[in-house]
Amino acid sequence: MSTPADSAEATESAAKTAESDPPQPPPADLPEKEEKEPAGSSIAFTVTLIVLVVLALFGRRIFTSLFTGDGIRTWATMFVGVTVQALPFLVLGVLLSAALTAFVPASFFAKALPKHPALAVPVASASGVILPGCECASVPVSAALMSRGVTPAAAIAFLLAAPAINPVVLASTAVAFPGQPKVVVARAVTSLAVSMILGWLWLLTGKGGSWFKLPKNRHAEGTRKADVFRESMLHDFLHAGGFLVIGAAAAATLNVVVPREWLDHVASNLLLSVVVLGLLAVLLAICSEADAFVAASLTQFSLTARLAFMVVGPVVDVKLIALQAGTFGPKFAVRFAPATFVIALLSSLVVGWWLL
Questions:
Q1: Any stretches that span the bilayer, and where are they (predicted)?
Q2: 106 contact partners, CB below 8 Å, separation of at least 6
Q3: What pTM value is reported for the model?
Q4: Least confident of 6-20, 59-73, 279-293
Q5: For residue 206, what pLDDT band results from cuts at 50, 70 and 90?
Q6: Is residue 4 part of a domain?
Q7: Residues spanned by the domain of 60
Q8: How far apart are CA 243 and CA 240, in angstroms?
């Protein structure tokens, strides 16, 4: 058995040992392994690009050689025409959007916007003219703005305006509607109005609450700008390219398969045609750089109805609802999407009556 003297001696020995051995520094954090983008993304990007290029160069010849019916020929001609016209604007828009995400710091907006929230909303909306962004990129960009101190109202205004009134979109609209500058003006005015109305509406009703969560950056701090650019470009092109093909096919099918009497009946009713094309824009989820060419192909409908199609698409569609739900929370999406849809339709009716 140990005696009290032995215990005291052991304690003194342990103390001396602790004094003689200097404290070891905490182990340095092991460098985190850099997350590499899955090879599948690059493969999918390459495949999508090849498919779109082949469609652009040989699509009409391929389809018309495989199918000989007049309806199929009409479908193939319209499908390839929409794809070929929209593809250059789609690529340009994706490149500019990725550059904005990678190289323009979110702190730039916080410094440039007015301090007063109500004044920051129209300035943020107008900045969409010079800082283009695809719908796919607008949600993470607006999330980054909020995380850097920009008010949610101004960030939401930018989210809605950037994909709708940027130069690439307006240029594609001018090409899709040649000789009709009023369509370009109407689209810019309506989209700008929608973004500002939703921004101001947020100031009145949405200053927080359990149904809205502040987002986190999609890209970690310290990520190389070149990597951010590449990842954003791959992500946006894969999404936008796929939806472009779907949208072009749907527009061609609508013109060929749906009986002409049905289209004429819907098109003859202004309110019904505006609602129908608005819903079609939500379901097709076409990238804003390409939707004007699909709208131009829907010749049975009035310019006001086609304006609604072009205004609704960049601000609310199925992919945007999913992105908003994942970024800001499902409770935000179920409130924001219906409000945006209604305001976009009403604004299209007013501006269409005024300008078209």
A1: 39-58, 79-104, 153-177, 184-203, 237-258, 270-286, 332-355
A2: 141, 144, 145, 147, 148, 150
A3: 0.72
A4: 6-20
A5: low
A6: no
A7: 41-355
A8: 5
